[in-house]
Every structure is written in structure tokens, then in C-alpha cells.
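Duplicate of earlier report; Endonuclease/exonuclease/phosphatase domain-containing protein input re-posted below.
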Amino acid sequence: MNQDDHIPSAGRLTNFIAYLIAGLSLVLLIGLSLSYAFQFDACVAITVYPVWVWFTGGLFLSLILFKTKSRWVALTTIGLWFVFLVGFADTPLSLWRGLWGSSNSEWVAAREQERALRVITINCSGSQQSILALKQKNPDLILIQESPTIENLKTIANELFGGETNLLAGVDASILCRGEIEPIATTMNWSVGKLTLPTGRQLVVVSLRLSPPPFRLDLWNPACWRDFRDHRIKQRAELATLSQALTEIPANLPLIVGGDFNANPQDPIFRELPASLQDAFSTAGAGWGNTITNELPFLRIDQIWSDDAFQPMHVISEPAINTDHRTVIADLILK
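Output:
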């Protein structure tokens, strides 16, 4: 047998490997698409990650196909993975807005008329300095998670807003504001207050921090999948309890809910929030909105939601100091 007799066999082996990898990529793509589209509780161990994590793995498989010289198969699978990325990515329009920039002149004009609010949420990891650094942002409302001690919060309230009537201190979640705030309800996860602005306008404000997810990467272990499933069920119950508490508040008061949700922004737990609320970043976000971690933000777990009494104009995420979370800054106009 001469060397040429091996050529057809080598070609068949190359084609077999190409179709095997393409088939594996397709099965993975279909499974992931179904998981993200329907957000099954049983699949939270998958959907807790942003889609680009799986896209990277799929792209790697597709690039291997170029080694098999199956160029058309490689290009097809790469195209399908890009469709997956665009279809399930969190607010891709924010990157477009951030690229081209936007004018905030309408919000500035509304603020001069005392119809605008700058809302900031920050998980400060107990750091007083990370909150004090927000003074330069000239906020009207700060939603705090992993709060410092109450004595430190009083110091911060005096420094930022000039008095302790501007403070609602909770176990974990607290609120600082320009104006006066009265406590409505507090739990381990959230604080609810009625804010009276300097103009006399009243609104309801919620600062929250939902239970953090398990830190597990052992997807081959059934216990990992159960832990993530149980965690979603727990978070869903936490938001349902909050929504029930909000039903006891007069419906005519504008509502802002923000904080550390500790969840992928596409998670179905957000359906437990009042139907009147909208994610401000989805409406007016600009740039890279991810908030965890501060140095390498890969997921947008810190968010600000508002009802239809507000028009979100500009929402961004910015680096913070002395914490592992970024801040979220939302400029809203009161209608």
C-alpha cells in the first residue's frame, strides 16, 4: 500500500471530526437557547452566567473547524453563535448609545425646574468612603446596600445632605436623600421609605439587596444545579414579599426600586416586581452597564427601576472605590 492510499481515509476522518464538532456545537447552542428563552428553574446553573460566557465556548468550538478545512461549516456555526449572542445579550442597545453619546440637556433643564432626580445605587461593602465619594455626583437619592454602621451613616448623611432626617438606616439596605424620609417597612433584604422632596413632592423609595447566589462552578455535580434552583426560588419569594408590601402603599405615589438584585438581569424573578416598574438601564442605559466586579464588570446585578411617573433620561455604570461593585447613576425626570 502506498502513501496515496491513505489520502481518502484522512479526508473522511477530517470530515467526520468536522461534523462531530459542528453537531456538538449545534446541540449546545439549542440547549442554551432554550434555557435562556424559557429560563427554566432547573437550568439556573446555566443562565446565571451572561450569554457571552457560553458564546466564547461556542466560538472556540467553531474556530477548531477551521483546522479541519471545513470553512463553510465553521462560518455557519460562527454565524449561529453570533445570532445567539445578539438575541440573548443584556441591552446591546446601551453599547450603541454609549458609542454615539447622548445629550442630557433635557434633564439639566428639568432639574433647574426642580422636576429631575439623580438616583445612585451602590453596594458599598460597608465602606463609608465609597458613599462619601458620591458627593461630587450631586445626587438627590442614594440607595445603599451592605450598609456601614448607623453611626457612620449619620456622619455621611450630615456630610452629603446636612441632616439625619435625610437617612433611613436598614439592616443591610439603607437610603440617603435630599429631602426628608419616613420609614414604611424594613426587612433583612430591603428598606422602604416615603420621601418628601424639597419641592413637597412625595414618592416611595426602596433600597434592596437580595440573597447572594451560591459560588459554585461544578456543573457536573447535581447538587450544584439544585443549589442554584433553590436560590432562585428564595429570591423570587423575597421579591414577592416586597411587592406585597408595596400594594399597601397608596398607588398614586411615584415609585423607585433599586439596589443589588444579585441576579442576571434577564432572570424571571423580576416578574415579581410591580408591573408598573421598568428597568431604567434598559430604557436609557449608555455604555457598558455591568456592575460586578468593580475591576472586571461582567454582569449587571445592580439596577434602578422606576414607574411611569418618571422618564429615565441617562443611566450609566461607573467605577467605585473600596467596594467590589460599580455604582449605577440614573438621571430621571418627574413627569
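The chain has ten helices and twelve strands.

Merging into the original ticket.
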